[in-house]
Amino acid sequence: MDVIDLSIEEDLSLLKTIIKSGNPEAGPSAGDIVYVHYVGTLAKDGTKFDSSRDRLQPFKFILGKGEVIKGWDVGIASMKEGEIANLRCSPKYAYGKAGSPPEIPPNATLNFEVELIKWEKKK
Prior knowledge:
rotamase; 10% helix; 7-stranded antiparallel sheet; peptidylprolyl isomerase; PPIase_dom_sf; single chain
């Protein structure tokens, strides 16, 4: 599996590994409403801290509007319909120095297995 550096700084701080390829013709744009399934784990020990799959409901948000961590806005914008990928987000692409207590400690690197289910074009 190829590892793709998606970081703006090209410093390996946001890495994507495609697990399952999606439709190469179809991908979302900034402002679209995206629907994803995900499992989030701490990179240091694999502890799961969140999962939409456990809730049996996809997570929905507007892409590129800062509603989610930066790693998702950048990473999911690179995905195609039906694609499943691992996004490895360094602290600057996740929750930074503050973390998101109690589940996510300060300066944590996070792994997300994300499936782009669908999206709706911005109106």
